[in-house]
Write a structure and sequence with these properties.
Layout: H1 15-28, E1 32-33, E2 36-37, H2 56-62, H3 64-76, H4 81-88, E3 133-136, H5 141-163, H6 171-184, E4 188-189, E5 202-205, E6 208-210, E7 224-233, E8 236-245, H7 251-270, H8 278-291, E9 294-295, E10 301-303, E11 310-314, E12 330-333, E13 336-338, E14 344-346, E15 353-355, E16 361-363, E17 366-370, E18 375-377
Parallel strand pairs: 3-11
Antiparallel strand pairs: 1-2, 4-7, 5-7, 6-15, 7-8, 9-13, 10-11, 12-17, 13-16, 14-15, 17-18
Amino acid sequence: MSSCAVRPAFNGGTMAARALASRLAPSQGLASSAGNLGWQHSSLWSDARLAKGSIFVPAFEASPRLRKIVAPVAMARKKSGFAQLLTKGFSGPPAESRPKAPLKQGNLSPTRPVPPHIPRPPYADSGVAPPWTMDPQVHGEEGIRRMREAGELAARVRDHAGTLVKPGVTTDEIDRVVHEMIIEAGAYPSPLNYAGFPKSVCTSVNECICHGIPDSRPLQDGDIINIDVTVYLNGYHGDTSKTFFCGNVSKPAQKLVQVTEEALDAAIALCGPDVEFKKIGHAIHAVADKHGYGVVRKFIGHGVGSVFHAGPAVLHYRNNEPGRMQVGQTFTIEPMFTMGGVRDVMWDDGWTAVTADGTLTAQFEHTLLITDTGVEVLTKG
C-alpha cells in the first residue's frame, strides 16, 4: 500500500506529515496538498505548473520565434508531460489509453469483523495511523525471519486474489476472500481501519492509480485491476501488489502492465548494500521514458516492517535525495505508470485516486530485504 496519500490523519496534515514534507520539499519540489500529503516532482517544464498558464501556451503556438527558442528544450525533455503538450497540442490522450467507460463508485458492504484472537497493529481499533517515522526498518535475525513469513503470506494471498479476477466478479467479493484468507492464517489485513480505510485490500481498476476501495461494481471484460495486499503477521507487515487482466484486455493496456512490471524488476536489480536510493527512481523513470509512459510522483514506496509505513521515502522518478541501503533493511518499491498525465483526482471517499485525464494506470509492488550479497524479494510468491 503506497505511502503519502495514505492519510494518517493527513487531512490538513499531522505534525509528522508536515515535518516530512518540509524535509523533502526544499530539495525536490515536493508539495503538501490540502486534504492529503502528496509529494510531486516540479521540474522546469512540469505539466502541473506550466500547463495551467493561459498566456504562455497560446503565445507559444502563435509565435514562430518563441517556438524556435523553446522547441529544443522541449525535445530534450520530450518525455515530460509539458513537452508532449507543446509538441502534440491539446487533442488529449488517444481513446486506446482510456477504459471503455469511466470508473464509477459502487456501494460498500459493512466492514468485515476480525476475531478477537487475531493480533492487531496499534491502529486497528482506533483507526488512528501512527505518525510517520523516517527511521529505517532494519532487522536482526528474528525480525528478518518474521518479515519473510509476512512477505510469503502476502504474496500467497495476492496470487490467490488474482485468480478471482473475472468479468462479473465484484471487488467486494475479492475483499471478502482476501479478508478470510488472511484471518485463517492468523494474520490481520493491514489496510483495515488504517486511518479509517474501510476494507482489507485495495482494488484499483483501470484509471484508479491506487487505494481503490472494494465495492459492488462488477469487473468488466477488458478491465485491468491492481490488487494491493498487506498482512500483519507476528508483529510485522508484508506489502505487495500486482496488476491483473480481466478477460480480453487491449494490447495497449497489456503493454502498460508489462512495462510497469519491467520497471519494478529493473529497480530491484540495482538494490544491494550501500546502494543509493535515488538509483531506484532513475531506473524506473528510464523505463517509462523509453515507452512514453507517465511516472506517478505523488505516491511512493516506503520502509515497512514492524510499522506499516516508515522511512525512507522511496521515489519512483528521477531525484537527488540522499540515503543508502543498509543490510537488514526492508522497504517497498511500487511504481505506478500511466498512459497519459500523472496528475490525480481524489474521490470524495478520501482514498480513491484516479488519473485526472482518465487514462489507464498500472502498478506493481514488492517488499524487499537488503542482504550481505544483494537483495531478497520477500513477496515474490
